[in-house]
Structures are given as C-alpha cells and as structure tokens.
Design a protein that fits this description.
21% strand; imidazolonepropionase activity; single chain
C-alpha cells in the first residue's frame, strides 16, 4: 500500500456533499484553511485540517507532500468535448470574423460535414496519436476526466474507430475518458429530408455493435432547427435508452424556444448542453429535475454569441456544469482558465459556482459523482494544486494556467516547471 499525505494546503477545496449541487448550493465548496488529505493507493481516506490529521496519521509511513501556499482542489471534469477528429477548419474561423453565421457556413458545405472526410480517412492509430497529444494539454490544465464524443464519421466504420481509439486512450492515458456516441451529429447531404432513415441506420446498424463492444456509455444528438427536430430527437433518445445508453442532448444552442431542454428533461437525459437559447420553461424543468445544465462559454466566445444565462439558471435552482466543447469548428480550445474568466466576468458566476460547475457538477453530468469531482473519503484521488494560496487568484490572474501539480488516482502525473 502506498500512502501519501498532503499537509498545509493554504485553501483545501473539497466540493463535498450531495451531487449534483443545485442553485445556491453551488456556492458551497467545502473550503477549509490549512487543509490536509491522506491518500492510500488510488483512494482518499482522510480529509480535514492539518492539525486534526497530524494526530491521526503516522507520517513516517507516508510520503509527505507540503502544499504550503497553494490551493488544493479536485481535478477538473471537462464533461463535453469532441476531442477526436481529423483535419482542421481555420478558414471557417476567418469567415465568422467576417460576419458569416454558424448556420450559413453549414449551408455552404462547412461546419460539421467539412470534418467528415478527413476524419473518415484517419486510422485508429492516428486517432490515438492525435488524442494523446490533446489529452496531454488537458492534463496540463488540471483536467483529470474528459468526456469525448464520436460524430465526425456519421457512418459505421469511422464511428467505431473513433470510439475504439477513445477506449485505448482511456486505458493508456492518465486522464479518464468517458465515451459518448454522437452518430447523429449532423445530417449528411445524402440524408437531407430523410432524417428518420438516418437515425434508424444508426440505431439498427451501428449502435448495437457499439454497445456489444462496450465502446460508449452515453448517446447524444444535435437537436436544432435544420438538423434534428424535437420529434426525431425524442424518437432517437427513446430507442437509444432501450439499447442501454445513458442520454445527453445538444440543446437550444441556436434557435430560441426550440424546446431542446424540455425534451432532454422528459427523456431523462443526464445533461442538456449549450442552452444559449433555453426557454424559461426549459430552465424551470431543468431546475426541478436531475438533468444537468451544461454550459459551454468558449463556444459562445468563439462564435461571438451571447452567453448562456448562467445567473438566471442558478438563481432558478438549476445544477450548472461548465465544459469546453473542444472541437475543430466552433471551438478549437480547451482552455480551462478562459472558461473560469468567462464564467466569472461575463456570466456573473462566483468563483465558487465556477469551481462547482467544473468539478462535482461536471462529474454528475457524466454519471461519475459517486467516485470523482470532490475530495472526500472513498473517492478516487484526483487532486490538483494551484500555484497561489487562494481560489480568488483563478479569475484575478486572468486566463493564466495556475495548475502546479496534478495527482491522478493517487499518483503524481504532472508537475509544472515554473
């Protein structure tokens, strides 16, 4: 047994308690001064003040880690990404800067469909190589668990290759990968007007094999005007659930009052994601349900769109998570410090709410809140150290990565050379 003992954390952020945290409870991050944590192998076994734990822990039997002057907190959970893909779309970013809208770019052959060809041309080995490099950057930002979606192949073989690569990465990289099947990420041109036929292809020819090979835990769909409507999305989600998938929904990103968040709640989805245009009724329903409201501010930033109404959602009682939406088109970024800045400065969230959204609520969005997202006895020892002594430095040292050390499952897997 390997015992590691963290002492004298300037601020220990535990994010303890019932998950997910709704509304005003998001401000409770269980902070203590001069905190300490005892780990045994990959688990947390004791949490408290240094004075308290010093009386219980035989330091001679431990590797003692001095966290003086540093924040110690749970590893970040990036609960919505598309980090595996082939090719890039830098030209589209330039088009958007000139005023072209996201939907107009899709209509001229850009958008999601523009990534299909280079992704279909990539092998499992190439996906693994690309994914490992991108996950290395995530680790540097303090991400210890990431959700990854398929969806840039939208056929049988490519979707399976993407998910097979994620499985390999989950088994070989320190960052844990939660895999999501997103075959209905867009409508291929040859299926335009035959969306239900496309969904049936996914449900009957692809997803049973995904489930048989245990390649994805969740199923997702892009519910939006011009992509998959409410009726088709509900049909897909109902059948995906019967196949054994947990559910997620891309909802209410572009079209106001489209009803995506309402449908996600009715379907029993773990999360409804984006929500820039969520209706008052959708917000009310999410607040009264277990569905996590996952907001993706980097995407709104890159698209120059108004941010999702985080303050309204939290005040209404929603459980809000924040994630990157890292993808090749609308958000080629996984910058956690920028998410923190946008959350605090432009979305009117407190730093405590932002931390909750990036840890325990992110864990709940991928059905992992029972094992990660907080520093509590019995949970996986996924812990990060920040360079400075207070969480107030996170928005104050604007967009700067403050992660000093990353401990994953009890082992130090990253240390920054300042």
């Amino acid at each position: 047994m390997i015992r590691r003992y963290i002492r004298h954390a300037s601020e220990l952020v535990t994010c303890h308690g019932t998950a997910p945290k709704h509304g005003k409870d998001m401000s409770d991050i269980g902070m203590m001064k001069d905190g300490a944590v005892l780990m045994e192998d990959d688990k947390i076994v004791l949490v408290g003040s240094t004075e308290e734990l010093d009386q219980k822990v035989d330091q001679a039997s431990c590797e003692v880690i001095d966290a003086s002057g540093k924040v110690v907190m749970p590893g970040f959970v990036d609960s919505h990404t598309h980090f595996l893909f082939g090719g890039y779309r830098a030209d589209e970013f330039t088009w958007r800067l000139k005023g072209d809208s996201y939907m107009s770019i899709m209509e001229r052959g850009g958008g999601i469909n523009a990534t299909v060809v280079p992704t279909r041309n990539a092998s499992v080995e190439e996906f693994v190589e690309l994914g490992r490099e991108r996950m290395n950057r995530m680790l540097e930002f303090g991400v210890t668990t990431v959700e990854g979606k398929s969806g840039y192949g939208m056929d049988h073989d490519t979707e399976l290759r993407m998910l097979e690569a994620m499985k390999i990465l989950n088994e070989s990289h320190p960052v844990d990968v939660v895999s999501t099947f997103l075959g209905p990420h867009s409508v291929l041109p040859e299926y335009k007007g035959r969306e239900r036929e496309f969904l049936d292809f996914m449900l009957e020819k692809v997803m049973p094999e995904v489930k048989e090979k245990n390649l994805a835990e969740f199923a997702d769909i892009f519910t939006e005007k011009g992509v998959f409507d409410i009726e088709d999305s509900a049909y897909y989600l109902e059948r995906a659930k019967k196949l054994g998938f947990k559910l997620k929904v891309h909802a209410d990103e572009i079209t106001p009052n489209f009803g995506g968040s309402e449908m996600a709640v009715k379907a029993g989805a773990f999360s409804a994601d984006h929500l820039l245009k969520a209706s008052d009724e959708g917000i009310r329903m999410m607040a009264e349900s277990s569905t996590i409201s996952t907001l993706l501010p980097l995407t709104a930033f890159c698209l120059k769109e108004p941010y999702a109404p985080a303050r309204k959602m939290i005040d209404s009682g929603c459980a809000v998570a924040l994630a990157s939406d890292f993808n090749p088109g609308s958000c080629f970024s996984n910058n956690i410090p920028l998410i923190v800045a946008l959350g605090c400065i432009y979305m009117n969230m407190s730093i405590e709410e932002v931390i909750t959204a990036l840890t325990i609520n992110g864990a709940a969005a991928v059905d992992r809140a029972d094992r990660i997202g907080s520093i509590e006895p019995g949970k996986q020892a996924d812990i990060i150290f920040l360079k400075f002594p207070s969480i107030s430095f996170m928005p104050y040292h604007t967009t700067i990565n403050l992660v000093d050390t990353v401990i994953k499952s009890g082992k130090t897997v990253y240390e920054k050379q300042w």
